[in-house]
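Note to self: keep these together.
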Amino acid sequence: MEWSDWFRTRPVARGVWLVAEPGHVNSWLVEGADRAVLVDSGLGMVPIRPVVEALTDRPVDVVHTHAHVDHVGGDAEFERVAIHPAGAATLRAGTDPAERRRYLAYARRLLDAAPAYRALDAEFFHLLSADADPRPLPDGVDGTWAPGPAPEPDPLVDGDVVDLGGRALRVLHTPGHTPDSLCFLDEHAGLLFAGDTVNTGPIYAQAPEADLDAFAASTARLAALADDVHLVLMCHFGRGVAEGAYLRDVADAFAALRAGEVVLRPARDCDDDPVREAVFDACSIYLSS
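Structure:
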């Protein structure tokens, strides 16, 4: 499969590109004067480095928002990767074949549902864009999707600065979705790369490694930055870009959840596991069942 048949790219801000695997996950390429970073390396089903090299001539390293399989699959294509120390062991261990099988089952359910959704959207809603419209899986993906080992990761901790030359990303440790979750803030441009700490679909707080109290604290921390954030750049679902004020919506949702001011309904996550879902106007939050 050609990379252009799998990835969707477009510029979002000066020196910033969306690198989407539509319907699955977004990575973000950020370019400075001297070098660039890829915020997460995607699933690894199709090589991502050729995509990056078509967009920038700067040397590119990877910085991770966390170590989940859909964010680290392309690491073996790069010489340097960095992650919070709490995610280093997971990165070194590599991806679990059983986890990949579960994800492929989800991807096929997604593709089965897509034609009906496209038809309804075209007739009534007009929300689906090329950023999120899922593409067919690569041929033979069950046998070929086996991401190689990541390079030994460099550590990233809260307060670190990733200097790209004329552009800097400040590292924010935002545990909750996972203990190693990071966001990256371009203070000058007002851009927040939010990982899975903020999303416009369901926000995943149901896994064993999730911590609801930490999640609420992290989203409150991000909400305090809302007035200085122009765009929030996210990793999943159909609306991958939001205004800074959305950070307050997410923090308010977690605060209401912690206060018990929500009604939970049954749902299923991307592993087809049963969860409880707290639904708000702007987003929803998955909890363990």
